[in-house]
UniProtKB/TrEMBL annotation:
Signal sequence coordinates: none
PANTHER family for the chain: 2-HYDROXYACID DEHYDROGENASE HOMOLOG 1-RELATED
Superkingdom to which the source organism belongs: Bacteria
Domain D-isomer specific 2-hydroxyacid dehydrogenase catalytic: 8-98
Pfam families to which the protein is assigned, alphabetical: 2-Hacid_dh (PF00389)
Keywords: NAD
The protein's name in its UniProt record: Lactate dehydrogenase
């Protein structure tokens, strides 16, 4: 998948690169996501954000116009994203809900979401969409329960 990750800190770069293993086309930038930096998302399927990026209805609409179909937040919370507007726009949202909050753990969760989406599957417990998903792999529920 083609993705751009915003608000990347120096200590996150290596973890994301290692977790990705050159599978996805990742662009890592240190800027936050806003109207001045949205051009980095042009032509990307996925935007990866932090909890410091605020995605209101207007910014989500611009992301959709740029071609973004999915958003991963490198946080547990999604209060910084207008989830209802994302749902209306057909943008899928995932977070990183597992206990390992180290840069390595968050990077692995982020790439796991990309891998699952890339293979047409639901991201399981990381799904923050407002819709019902019927593409979840039955084994995934077991794996999610074990994490």
């Amino acid at each position: 998948m083609k993705a751009v990750a915003y608000n990347i800190k120096d200590y996150e770069k290596e973890s994301l690169a290692i977790a990705n293993g050159k599978v996805h086309d990742l662009t890592l930038i240190s800027n936050s996501l806003n109207f001045r930096t949205i051009h980095y998302a042009q032509g990307k399927e996925v935007v990866i954000i932090s909890e410091d990026d605020y995605l209101d209805a207007e910014l989500l609409e611009e992301l959709q116009r740029a071609g973004v179909q999915k958003i991963v937040t490198r946080s547990i919370t999604t209060s910084h994203i207008d989830l209802l507007r994302a749902y209306d726009l057909g943008i899928q949202i995932a977070n990183t809900p597992y206990e390992d909050r180290t840069p390595k753990g968050i990077a692995e969760q982020t790439i796991r979401n990309l891998n699952l989406w890339g293979s047409g599957k639901c991201v399981g417990r990381a799904c923050c969409c407002a819709k019902e998903c019927n593409v979840m792999d039955p084994n995934q529920l077991k794996n999610d329960a074990a994490k």
